[in-house]
């Protein structure tokens, strides 16, 4: 159970909130590169951490991410003209480049230097892994881009999707690291229909990237099979690698849109080879971590409005514990069912909620550390270059001792993806 203040600390990410300030120390995914397919294409609305923004790709192919409101009189830049290296507000023609500088102000007399005094809020962007990322924090504290393995493999090695969740980002995070639900919510669907027995050991191990969230299942011969999910601060989860030995790796990010909605990004990738039709079929048939969205939108076809198409017959027959189809829908459905902001003051957490408890503690202590002026640890270059794993070790051996052998740093990728287009200058 959390106090009201602790709950608020975790969930609120708008400008000026402690968690909002914390997350703004990191690079944040804001849209797919393909949403801005070519120079001077139409701009796209973006909402992240409670801020309404507009993204555009200028004539040089650089991505800009600016405040939606024109600094002249607050007209929406979404309706702007994207032309000749800048976005021009259609109300009175003020034009801004990707750095936010006002480069033309035709509504003022030619001798005026007013345009040099006005700028629009703009965030530096980078394109990695076919995703546009923004840095929304203090310019002086901008970290190097994190070495996330999935962003460094060629496009053929990766499959990505995203959709809006109608709940606060912490509900997604809690669910992502809540290892005991696997044996209930996903029963009948997880691991291709195999029943996943309930883990009885839960061990969070704090690391320089965040934490290893380990859940263990007893096996014959005094062994414990550990599934190691990785929390990469502030909002990434690397899913423990399971299934066939050569299976792809799954990862999620839960990015706050505002206090009552978040964007869940789902990526599957293989470090060494292109994903095959079989990989994708496996992902579709067994996992469904990717949802099917209404065309041109980030909203899943199966959603709250249609009760996630719960099939009561499948539920009653036991073919599926929930009667909802696919892990992604089950997670999203049940996390949204808590309401847009879950009231954690009325929870009753048990022993098998240990990882959820620790996830919250880790995030709260990171925010407290920031407030006390400590360095933000997971912004250090290189720390995100890790890979999730599973491992069976003897129950006599403490997990902590084995961890270095299991979670090895990822070697540099064989192929580094070339960006399709030049990216915005970061300064
Ligand atoms: S409101 Fe944008 S130029 Fe006037
Ligand atoms: Fe789940």
Q: Name the helicity range.
A: 10-25%
* Distinct ligands, ions and cofactors found in the model: FE2/S2 (inorganic) cluster, fe (ii) ion
Question: What multimeric state do the chains show?
Answer: single chain
How many separate structural domains? 2
Specify the number of helices.
8
The radius of gyration over CA amounts to 23 Å
The CATH homologous superfamily of the largest domain: Naphthalene 1,2-dioxygenase Alpha Subunit, Chain A, domain 1
CATH top level class name of the largest domain: Alpha Beta
Q: Beta-strand level of the residues, as a percent range?
A: 15-25%
Structural class given helices, strands, pairing? alpha+beta
**Could you describe the largest sheet, including whether it forms a barrel?**
8 strands, antiparallel
The ordered string of helix (H) and strand (E) elements is HHEEEEEEEEEEEEHEEEEEEHHHHEH
Task: Measure the end-to-end span.
Answer: 43 Å
Say what the CATH topology of the largest domain is. Answer: Naphthalene 1,2-dioxygenase Alpha Subunit, Chain A, domain 1
Query: Overall 3D geometry?
Result: globular
Outline the low-pLDDT stretches: 413-427
Number of strands: 19
Q: Which architecture of the largest domain does the CATH hierarchy give at level 2?
A: Alpha-Beta Complex
The overall pLDDT average reads 91
């Amino acid at each position: 159970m959390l106090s009201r203040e602790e709950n608020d600390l975790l969930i609120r990410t708008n400008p000026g909130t402690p968690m909002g300030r914390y997350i703004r120390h990191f690079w944040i995914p804001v849209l797919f590169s393909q949403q801005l397919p070519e120079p001077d294409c139409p701009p796209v609305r973006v909402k992240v951490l409670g801020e309404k923004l507009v993204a555009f790709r200028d004539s040089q192919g650089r991505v800009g991410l600016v405040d939606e409101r024109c600094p002249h009189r607050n007209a929406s830049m979404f309706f702007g003209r994207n032309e000749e290296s800048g976005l021009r507000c259609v109300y009175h023609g003020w034009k801004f480049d990707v750095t936010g500088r006002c480069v033309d102000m035709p509504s003022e007399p030619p001798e005026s230097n007013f345009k040099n005094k006005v700028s629009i809020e703009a965030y530096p962007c980078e394109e990695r892994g076919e995703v546009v990322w923004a840095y929304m924090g203090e310019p002086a504290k901008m970290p190097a881009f994190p070495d996330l393995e999935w962003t460094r493999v060629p496009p053929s090695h990766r499959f990505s999707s995203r959709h809006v969740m109608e709940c606060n980002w912490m509900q997604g995070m809690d669910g992502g690291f809540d290892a005991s639900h696997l044996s209930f919510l996903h029963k009948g669907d997880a691991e291709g229909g195999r029943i996943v027995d309930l883990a009885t050991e839960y061990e969070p191990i704090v690391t320089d990237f965040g934490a290893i969230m380990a859940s263990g299942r007893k096996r014959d011969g005094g062994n414990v099979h550990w599934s190691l999910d990785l929390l990469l601060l502030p909002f990434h989860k690397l899913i423990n690698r399971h299934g066939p030995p050569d299976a792809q790796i799954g990862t999620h990010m839960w990015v706050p849109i505002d206090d009552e909605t978040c964007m869940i990004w789902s990526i599957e990738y293989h470090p060494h080879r292109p994903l095959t039709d079989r990989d994708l079929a496996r992902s579709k048939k067994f996992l469904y971590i990717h949802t099917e969205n209404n065309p041109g939108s980030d909203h899943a076809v199966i959603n709250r409005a249609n009760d996630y198409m719960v099939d009561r017959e499948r539920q009653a027959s036991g073919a599926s514990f929930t009667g909802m189809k696919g892990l992604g829908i089950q997670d999203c459905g049940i996390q949204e069912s808590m309401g847009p902001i879950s009231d954690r003051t009325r929870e009753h957490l048990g022993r098998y909620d240990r990882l959820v408890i620790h996830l919250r503690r880790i995030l709260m202590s990171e925010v407290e550390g920031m407030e006390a002026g400590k360095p933000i640890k997971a912004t250090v270059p290189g720390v995100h270059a890790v890979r999730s794993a599973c491992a069976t070790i003897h129950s006599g051996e403490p997990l902590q001792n084995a961890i270095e052998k299991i979670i090895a740093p990822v070697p540099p990728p064989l192929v580094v993806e070339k960006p399709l287009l030049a990216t915005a200058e970061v300064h």
